[in-house]
Amino acid sequence: NTECRVVVTPLDWLTVLRQCDDNTLEQTYRLRVIQQFVARASTAAWCSNPKGCTRVVYWAGPRAQEDVVVTCVCGWRFCWKCSASPHAPARCDQVKQWTCLLYTSDAADDM
User: DSSP 3-state assignment of 57?
Assistant: First the structure.
């Protein structure tokens, strides 16, 4: 019904999901909520550890600020702006260009 104005809160969803026999629904819902939060929050980012850390890192400064290195509780350090390994004094755009050059030259060498 399009005239219904009832707001279903996250707590309401969890209450319904907990009544299901399948615990993975609740876990999936919680993960999606966290993913949406991190995607929208300028103070949160996923750890970029290539070994697969699933933690979220918080920093109070602006996301676009250059030269900020954050450390996850797993010990991985990365650039807050671009999520690459710390790369000062190079700017994020320079690292991106360099990475593209490396990958395209590696691909050309393989041919």
Answer: strand
